UniProtKB/TrEMBL annotation:
Signal peptide: 1-21
Keyword Nuclease carried by entry: no
Cross-referenced InterPro entries: KFase/CYL (IPR007325), KFase_sf (IPR037175)
Location(s), subcellular: Secreted, Extracellular space, Extracellular matrix
Keywords: Extracellular matrix, Secreted, Signal
Lineage, opening ranks: Eukaryota, Viridiplantae, Streptophyta, Embryophyta, Tracheophyta
Superkingdom, taxonomy of origin: Eukaryota
Entry similarity comment: Belongs to the Cyclase 1 superfamily.
Major localization class: secreted
Protein name in the entry: Kynurenine formamidase
Length: 260
């Protein structure tokens, strides 16, 4: 009797799945659940500190943002068997790294492009620090932060994060960044070789070029710009940044994560 019931329920199961299968195959497709997009993974131990690239991503000196950056090379809707997109944007879009080639043509000519950046420096222990909200990052500010010798990677969180500047498509030149003397002080007095910041440039707008020249002259410093540092406590993490190997490029978009 029990065996008979089992058999019956097994048959019922097969029938139900066949019937559902047929309905799925012929009827209107059930809507898919929305794709999940996350900032934090692994029970709060892994933070994505990369900004999404969207048409509203702010770009240097622009009021209108990035605009359309993806276009189809092939699309299933047009009869192709695959979807394949093409990307067109500056290599300094959203979260990205700068190579020495960015501001020194002699370094560009000699091949110091993003592909030559030290992957060991882009991956390792990193300090997330908050800087004073009422100043750009000057030598005095750098001094006041008391960053210990031996610290090689620092992510500087500024009022840019409070002001949500990376989420506003209109470029805002009043963002906080390094002044030239702050960069010089960092290069001369600390062991920091990776500098990260939370807007499109690590350098304040007013001294953008001079500050980059200070940082990149020795070819020992990597700049990571456009980081997303919202909702993360200051402190020590493991940083991973993996820029795309664009040979000949002076910068490159990068995915960056922090691990607790
Ligand atoms: C499909 O082809 C048409 C005509 O060539 C073109 O205008 C359209 O952009 C294509 N759409 C996609 C999604 O590829
Ligand atoms: C840096 O050290 C000085 C002197 O010890 C102290 O007064 C100051 O609060 C420290 N600043 C930070 C940001 O820890
Ligand atoms: C930082 O410098 C920019 C110019 O690059 C300026 O507009 C802004 O007011 C300065 N920020 C602060 C907090 O002084």
């Amino acid at each position: 009797m029990m065996r008979g019931l089992h058999l019956l329920s097994l048959l019922l199961c097969i029938w139900v799945s066949l019937a559902t299968g047929r309905r799925l195959a012929t009827g209107p497709e059930a809507p898919l659940p929305p794709a999940e997009r996350r900032e934090v993974y692994a029970d709060g131990r892994l933070f994505d500190i990369t900004h999404r690239v969207t048409k509203d991503t702010p770009t240097w000196d622009s009021k209108v943002g990035l605009g359309q950056f993806l276009s189809p090379l092939a699309s299933i809707k047009n009869g192709s068997v695959v979807n394949a997109a093409e990307v067109k944007m500056s290599v300094h879009t959203a979260t990205h790294v700068d190579s020495p080639a960015h501001v020194f043509d002699k370094y560009a000519d000699a091949g110091y492009d993003v592909d030559s950046l030290d992957l060991e420096l882009l991956n390792g222990p990193a300090l997330l620090v908050d800087v004073p909200r009422d100043k750009n990052i000057t030598a005095d500010v750098m001094m006041s932060l008391n960053i210990s010798k031996g610290v090689r990677r620092v992510l500087f969180r500024t009022s840019n994060t409070d002001r949500q500047l990376m989420f506003k498509k209109e470029f805002d030149s009043s963002y906080t960044g390094f002044m030239k003397d702050g960069a010089k002080w960092l290069v001369e007095n600390t062991d920091i070789k990776l500098v990260g910041l939370d807007y499109l440039s690590v350098a304040a707008y007013a001294e953008a070029l001079d500050t980059h020249l200070e940082f990149l002259a020795s070819r020992e410093t990597i700049l990571v710009e456009g980081l997303k540092l919202d909702n993360i406590l200051p402190g020590l993490y493991t940083l991973h940044c993996l820029p795309v190997r664009l040979v000949g490029a002076d910068g490159s978009p990068t995915r960056c994560i922090l691990l607790k």
